[in-house]
């Protein structure tokens, strides 16, 4: 299978605790390669647009407020079956249900502060990558 790309965010709870390197190490050890990465502080407008699919859900405002509460690290990851590989190493959304050795089981604080976001499909990965990165910023 050919390598493809996915999108990842290291969330404010993880950057606040200086876990960017630990998360990246886990991603790399799972066979993913970081081909673009930058630390940003999302604006409210960016977060609302990025998470717009959840706008009608009751947790939308809390999610946006959390995501703008501190810096995040946005990344493009590359590897074989990158979307699924990233989802496997992230673990279940609720850390209590995540498998041992996954990012969320080992590093997350709660279901809300679960340390990472990852694309759920190749199509969403392409959309999410384009939201944060220009093609020339991806150097794989």
The name of the CATH architecture is: 2-Layer Sandwich
How do the SSEs run, as a string of H and E?
A: EHHEHHEHHEH
- Sheet-strand content, in percent, reads 15-25%
Per CATH, the class reads Alpha Beta
Question: What number is the mean pLDDT?
Answer: 96
Widest β-sheet, arrangement of strands: 2-3-1-4
For the sheet with most strands, the description reads: 4 strands, antiparallel
Total domain units: 1
Rg over CA atoms? 14 Å
Counted by DSSP, the helix tally is 7
Which residue ranges are poorly predicted, with pLDDT under 50 across at least 5 consecutive positions?
Answer: none
CATH 4th-level superfamily: Nucleoside diphosphate kinase-like domain
Shape annotation? globular
Broad structural category = alpha+beta
Task: Kindly identify the CATH topology.
Answer: Alpha-Beta Plaits
Helix content: 25-40%
**What is the CA–CA distance across the termini?**
17 Å
Kindly state the number of beta strands: 4
Give the SSE layout.
Layout: E1 3-10, H1 12-16, H2 20-29, E2 33-40, H3 44-50, H4 60-67, E3 72-80, H5 82-90, H6 103-107, E4 116-118, H7 122-132
Antiparallel strand pairs: 1-3, 1-4, 2-3
Concise synopsis of the structure shown:
This protein has seven helices and four strands. By secondary structure, the protein is an alpha+beta fold. It catalyses: a ribonucleoside 5'-diphosphate + ATP = a ribonucleoside 5'-triphosphate + ADP; a 2'-deoxyribonucleoside 5'-diphosphate + ATP = a 2'-deoxyribonucleoside 5'-triphosphate + ADP.
């Amino acid at each position: 299978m050919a390598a493809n790309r996915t999108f990842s965010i290291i969330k404010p709870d993880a950057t606040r605790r200086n876990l960017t390197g630990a998360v990246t190490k886990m991603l790399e050890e799972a066979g993913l390669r970081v081909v673009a990465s930058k630390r940003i502080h999302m604006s409210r407008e960016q977060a609302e647009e990025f998470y717009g699919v959840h706008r009608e859900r009751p947790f939308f405002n809390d999610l946006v407020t959390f995501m703008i509460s501190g810096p995040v690290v946005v990344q493009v990851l590359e590897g074989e079956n990158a979307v699924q590989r990233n989802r496997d190493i992230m673990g279940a959304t609720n850390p209590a249900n995540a498998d041992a050795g996954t990012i969320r089981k080992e590093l997350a604080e709660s279901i809300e502060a679960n340390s990472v976001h990852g694309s759920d499909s190749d199509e969403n990965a392409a959309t999410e990558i384009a939201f944060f990165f220009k093609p020339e910023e991806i150097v794989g």
